Every structure is written in C-alpha cells, then in structure tokens.
Amino acid sequence: MVVELISVGTELLLGNIVNTNAAYLAEKCAGLGLSCYYQTVVGDNSGRLAGTIRTALERADLVIMTGGLGPTQDDLTKETAAGVWNRQLAMDPHSLERIETYFRERGLEMTENNKKQALVPEGAIVVDNDNGTAPGIIMEKEGKRMILLPGPPNELKPMFENSIAPFLTGLENPDAPGIIFSKTVKICGMGESKVESQITDLEALANPTVAPYAKTGEVHLRVTARAEDEKEAKKLVKPVVKELKSRFGSAVYTTEEDVTLEKAVVDLLLANELTVSTIESCTGGMLAARLINIPGVSEVFKTGYITYSNKAKRKIAGVKKGTLDKFGAVSPQTAKEMARGTALLTKADVTFSITGIAGPDGGTAEKPVGLIYMGCYVCGTTNVKEFHFSGNRAKIRETAVSAALTMMRQCILEYYSQKTFGKKV
C-alpha cells in the first residue's frame, strides 16, 4: 500500500514551526510496511490544498493529512477534503458532546466557532481525540482513503498509535500476506556508515527486510517481516535480530520501540541501584534534562550542576586553580576533576562531566569549536574521553549529550564487566 503525507499550515511554509509530524508519520508508516514516495507541505489555502489532495490521490492508496482541523476560518483541511469527494459536512453529536465536556471540565468558555470542529464529512469514520478538541477523520471511496489528523504532536501521536495504526494494520492487502511485524535494533556509539558496512548482506534480504535509520548519536535498524499471522512474522524477524545483536554486541542498547537511550541509561542505573549526578558546562544542563525526562529517575538522580564559569567549576566541583591556569577549562584534566569533585560533593555512585567549546566563537587552532571533553566517574574509577563534533552550536550541544549518554552507559557496563561478582546489567 502506498501512502502520501500532506502537512497543512502556512506556518510550516514560513519556517515558524518545524515539521516534526511528517518525520514521525513517515517512520511509523514505514514500520507498518507502507511505501511513502511523496511528502508535501501546503499552506492554508483551499485551492492549493484541493489540488495537492487530488494529485496525492492519483498516486497513492492512502493520504494522511495533518493540521488545519482547528476552529478558525483558516482551518480548511476537513472542508477541502470533503469537497474533493463532493461530500457534505454534518454536525456529529458525539464529537460535539466531547468538545463541550472538554471545555466544561477545564472551566473554560466554549466559543461558537469551536462547534466547527464537530462537523464531519458524510460517511466518515470519526476518531476520538483524548488530548484535544479536534477529532480525527477517516474517509473512504473506491479503494482510496484519506485520514485527517490534528496538527499538535501531543494530539497526533497518541491518536495515531492508539487508533490509526491498528486501523491500518487491519486493512486487507491483496498483494501480500496480511500481517506486518517490525522490531527495531537500536545502536549507540557508532556512525551510520560503519553500521551499514556491517549489514550489507542483511540489507539484501527480501523478507524480512533490514533498513537503517540515522538518529543523533544513534543508528536504528528496523527489521520488518510479512507473514500470514503475527506468530510467523515474529519467527522470521527473530533470527535476524539475534544476528544483529551478535554483530554489534554491547552497542545495542535495546530492541524495544519505546526505549530511548536515556531510558536505557536510567534502567541500567536502577538495575544496579546506582545514584547519579551531572556537572555540565557547554551543554548547560541538557544531559540532566534528558535523564530527568524519564519517569522513575528520582530514584537515582541526585543533583545536576551547570558550571559555566571557571569560578563555578572551582567553587562547586573543587577544580584546582592550577589546573585551570595550566590546562584551561576545556581539557581532560578539568573534566576529570569536575567528575571526581562532583562525586565527592554529592556522594553519587556515578558522576558525569562535560566541558567544551560549542561555538560559534571561542575556538583556537589548538582547541577548535566542537572540542569536548567528558569525564565519567563510576564507583571510584574515572574515565575521560575527547570528542570532536561539527555543526552549529545547537547541533554540537545535542550531539555531545547523545555521546555523553553512550559514554555513561559504556562506563557502567565496563565497570561491572571487570568485577567478578557484579550486579545484573
């Protein structure tokens, strides 16, 4: 089945909002075995949107649209999609009641234009929105389908995962067996080219298929199989996943879809009853923020410091003045003292330090922009690594945090691998 994505909103064309919905939906559709050949962004204009929809329907079996389902006059997606198929809009009592309840439970006044969101094309399937007011819409005609989803990601994602994905999974595919099953092998600490060079033979497989997806500081390998039933599909996927885990070893941090790198690190800390503290300079607390995003981290996370100035490094972490004078703030010596000083101060089992030059200014020939030193203290042992990252300031900081999570995980694993009687990792 071929799917085409249409993102609606003038703010997307102007660059005011980053189109994260398209990336999310493209990945999810690939995981469902759908082929996506085109993605389009169109502004809030009914004429251009109608033309875009007609073009998409000519070359795709399924068109998924996001955005433009709000209560204002420039929210035209539903009206335009209905018009393309010559369908009238009618008030859906169920959706209207949900919208009224939404406002009433929050003590908010519901204005008249909000009723517009309860208008539904005739013959459409209504998808409840548990996180907002605009319901999703599924329309079908002569083997073609249009799915309309709300634009806010916190509404779109749960709606897709809870309602749309099961709907798509249940659609009959006459050209292939009825079940598609995927498993993702997530790898950290390796670049995409290095990973791909080790799986060229597996990429040639027809069923299951192996497809790499690059992330910041990670590479995900999605293994997808088609079969008559889920049991058979899982049976096809299992040996390939096992082979990938064998090839990449400890670089594989999970095969679970909902486990992020930071969650894997937090789970490792929890499993070994280790506490953690962070001390950051150029990343300004981004490492701590990634860890704190994970529910349950309060069991292990003690303290996070941002020591941007030399004075703060000395006062909080106890970095020696002589170290800063001789080697500078961006040095392996400072990173080591930051990590060890934080361990002494917070009594954490694991501490992690980051110091570097994120740019765009401040670099020299000896210490260029993108030079980062990281220190990781684990139960008395401190490791320091040097990194060189490229890109703008935001990319350098983001890449540094991903590398920090990878290094923290590796240091903890190495610590327990060297112990005769270690805790389970």
Description:
- By secondary structure, this protein is of the alpha/beta class.
- The protein has three domains: 2-169, MoaB/Mog-like domain (Molybdenum Cofactor Biosythetic Enzyme, Chain A, 3-Layer(aba) Sandwich), CATH 3.40.980; 179-254, Alpha-Beta Plaits (2-Layer Sandwich), CATH 3.30.70.2860; 261-417, CinA-like (Maf protein).
- The protein contains 15 helices and 17 strands.
- The strands form four sheets. It has a six-stranded mixed β-sheet, with helices on both faces. The chain has a five-stranded mixed β-sheet with strand order 14-13-15-16-17, sandwiched between helices.
- The longest helix has 25 residues, at 393-417.
- The chain is globular.
- The protein starts with a strand and ends in an 8-residue tail after the last helix.
- The model has no long low-confidence stretch (mean pLDDT 93).
- Belongs to the CinA family.
- InterPro entries: CinA, CinA-like_C, CinA_C, CinA_KH, Competence-induced_CinA, MoaB/Mog-like_dom_sf, MoaB/Mog_dom.
- This is Putative competence-damage inducible protein.
Supply database-style keywords.
425 residues; MoaB/Mog_dom; 3 domains; single chain; CinA; Molybdenum Cofactor Biosythetic Enzyme, Chain A; alpha/beta; 17 strands; CinA_C; globular; Putative competence-damage inducible protein; Alpha-Beta Plaits; Maf protein; 25% strand
Structural class label: alpha/beta
Biggest sheet, open or closed, and with what strands and sense?
A: 6 strands, mixed
Share in β-strands: 15-25%
CATH homology group of the largest domain: MoaB/Mog-like domain
CATH topology of the largest domain: Molybdenum Cofactor Biosythetic Enzyme, Chain A
Instruction: State the strand order across the main sheet.
Output: 2-1-3-8-7-6
Q: Could you say what the CATH architecture of the largest domain is?
A: 3-Layer(aba) Sandwich
- Evaluate the radius of gyration: 26 Å
List segments where confidence is low: pLDDT < 50 over at least 5 consecutive residues.
none
Q: In which range does the helix fraction lie? A: 40-55%
